[in-house]
Every structure is written in structure tokens, then in C-alpha cells.
Amino acid sequence: MIVLSSQMLHAEPTVTFLAHGSQDLRTLSAELWARPRSGAAVAAMPAVRESVQDLLSAPVGAKLVIRYPGGEEGNLWAEELHVWLISLGIDANLMDLRPGSSEPDQIELYIE
Fold this sequence. Notes:
The chain has 112 residues and is of the alpha+beta class. The protein has a single domain, classed as CATH 3.30.1330.60. It is 35% helix and 25% strand. The protein has four helices and six strands; from the N terminus they run βββαααβαββ. It is globular, with a radius of gyration of 14 Å.
């Protein structure tokens, strides 16, 4: 569940990620990513929501690894996800983009 905690008058909404789960590998499919995106839609994607929750509960120094398919398309996908997460309040320094996901149509998310 995602709770957007902002009033319409505020210029910058805050997103609180609420989820359960362990710090496992999560996958974000190209099919899901191809749907229209907004901040709320990206935050509601299960792999994103659960990975961010894992990151927020991880020890200091942990990073969210975004492992993406190689090539230009995979790189663009990962960069867009990265920018969405920054816009939702995740510090860019807490994320690490890496090529080489195990499948060409998915991004893998995990905490390291």
C-alpha cells in the first residue's frame, strides 16, 4: 500500500512507501513498465514499492541496486526508473545502476 502524504497546496508531495517483505531480488518487467507512468504509478509497482521499503529499512550504507538489460534501451529504462525514484524522494546516492540483468525484458532490484 502506498500513502501519498501531501496536501494539494504543497509544491513537493512526499511519498511514503509501506510494504512487507524481505530483502530479496525483485523484478520489474518491461510489460509493466510499458504502462502509462506517473509518480504514483511507479511507486505502486510491487517490485519498486517493496525494494524501496527494503532500502528504507536497511542498515546505513546499503544501496538499491538497479540491474538492467544491456544496450541502449536497457540503459534508458534504468535511467528513467532512477529519475522517477529521485523525484519520489530517494537519494540518488542510495542507488547503483548496473548492466547485466538475467533477462532482457526485466530490471532486477535488490539491496546490497
